[in-house]
Every structure is written in C-alpha cells, then in structure tokens.
Amino acid sequence: MWCSSQLVPQVQEWARELGFSQIGVAGVDLSAAEPGLAAWLAQGFHGDMHYMAAHGLKRARPAELVPGTVSVITARMDYLPRHTPVRAPQAWQALELARLARPGEGIVSVYARGRDYHKVLRTRLQALSDRIAAAVGPLGHRVFTDSAPVLECELAARSGQGWRGRHTLVLNREAGSMFFLGEIYVDIALPESEPVTAHCGSCTACIDICPTQAIIAPHRLDARRCISYLTIEHAGPIPLELRPLMGNRIYGCDDCQLICPWNKFAQVSRLPDFDERQGLAGQQLVHLFAWDEATFLRMTEGGPIRRIGHERWLRNIAVALGNALRAAVTGGDAGGADALALRAALHSRVADKSALVREHVAWALAQDAAWS
Description:
Largest sheet: 4 strands, antiparallel
Oligomer: single chain
Number of helices: 15
Number of strands: 10
Strand order of the largest sheet: 1-2-7-4
Helix content: 25-40%
Number of domains: 2
Radius of gyration: 22 Å
Distance between the termini: 76 Å
CATH topology of the largest domain: NADH Oxidase
Strand content: 5-15%
CATH architecture of the largest domain: 3-Layer(aba) Sandwich
C-alpha cells in the first residue's frame, strides 16, 4: 500500500517515462482566484468564448466540477520541435521573430505545427492515471488538457510549475513558457507542491511587444484584442482596426513568448509528436491561400489547426495577404511575393462561396487601392 509521500515521487518517475517534463500537486481551494475570474468575465474580456462564462465560478472550484476531488495532479510538457536551435548562435527566438520581417510568409504558432496537443497530453495523462490506479487501487479521477472549465494556469502556479508572467502565461526558470499544461483531478489526498516565487522583475517586454496591445495591464489580457483569439477562437469578421496589426500571423501569435528573456531556457520536446509538419512553416501565403478544403483537411489532419475549419483559415490568410500587399505597394518587401502574385491570389477568391471570406478578400484588395 502506497503512502501519499511515497506516491508522488513515483508518479513523477512514471510521468517522465511518458514524456512529461514536470509533475506537481495542487489543492482544490482556489477561492482566492475567484474575484479576479469574476471581474475578467464581467468586463467581457473573454469575447466569444462563451464556454468560459457558462460554468461560472465552477472553474475555480475543482470539487464542484468533479465531485470527490481532493487533489489535482498538474503536468507540463515541453513542446518545442526537437530540431529547434535552442542555443546560440542561432537562438530559436530570433529565427522566429525574423519571420515577421517576411510579410509574404504565413506564420503559424510554434505549438500548432505538429500534432494536436489535446490528443497527445490527454492520452498520456490517462496512461499516467492508469498506472496510479494500478498501484493504489480504485481511483476516482478525470483528466483535462485545455478541454474543460479548469483554471490550469492557477493550478500550475500553485503546484510549483512556475509563476504567472505579466502576459498571464506560466513561466519556469528552467523552461520558459514553451510547454503545455494538463491536469488529473483525483479523489485521494496528496501532499501539495511548494509554489515558486515570481522572477519577472521590472521587465515589461511582453506587454511592449504585443502587436494589438491585448495585454492591457500586467497579468490582464483582453482576449478580444489577442491575435491568438482572433485567428482561432473568433468565428466572425475580424475587427477592421485590428487587421493591419495582425501582419502575417495566420494561426496564433507567439510574440509575447518570443521576446521573453526566460524563453532562452526553453527546452525541446522529447516526443516526435510536436515536430513541424511539412507545409506549415516557412510557406508563402499565396500557396496556403490556394488550398481547397480537401487539401486543408489533409494537411491539417491530426493537428490543432483543423479545428478552425477551411473558412476561417482563408479569412486569416486574406488578412495577411492584404498586409503583405500593403507592404509591397509602399516599397517594402513582401517576403519574396511580389504585388502581382498577391493580387492574383486574392482575385482567385473574390467570388468565394463564403461571405466571410469575400469580405476579407475585399478588404485585402483595398489595401492595394489605398496606397497605389
């Protein structure tokens, strides 16, 4: 029979074998986080993510979400692709930031270039749960990976995975912020991990670099302005005033992480799942815009991008094409794509079946007229 103090080190060993980078344990009393959550929702900062409000404060009450829960096992998993140059002279952050200077290239967030992390983590969290159950006997549990009303960053910070950075993400001194989080709610009492102190100091780099100024204050994010939200969660037209600020980011945005000094310590994944898939990094916008729905589904099979669907994919790229076109006609560089090629790509979908796509194509073409 395992005692709780012996079980946690064993769980940590099993987790490492499954590819996890760190395991912690948090309690279920998150009442101190409830006022902040309620205020954030009341201000509408969650935008169209209605599911975040649907469960109310249950997000901060693990024992209400999963009755019987008395401890939460938290897990993190590094996700930088295995070939990423994490050490000088070719620091990965500089290489990623350089993509922004090539407007004709479509940028997909680093985390989304491989397999869907929901599937990877959920499968391995379940495998870890099975090993725990085999050791301790019947185990009431439920696994989560960004898939339910869970305050995962709060739980991660309370269990020693890191501290909340000013951009609201969890930061770890040995791994930066380039990792996924997951949780196992369990009905057995486990010793809680010690939280760590914050180490952002006076740095505001993440706030300063945000293209849309979505980080409205330290630890305060207005998701409605965030490019990750706009390109992934938001289903309708992208606000006109934000389109020029999106640049060539077509799925997510990594800027606040790329500029963070702690990410010089980011670690590569030990799993092949997060390696970049061919066709999703370094591709020209005109090429990506030419994908029909069948090609989109084939190229994104098993990956996170598929969840936005072909229509939103085209919407996002249309905005990026408009920004590249503006750069080209004002005498800048469109990253190897000339204005003629950009116009031709946009004209190919002027009569697209989707009104959403047509409107964004019209806006993109208007960037040409505004400067010619």
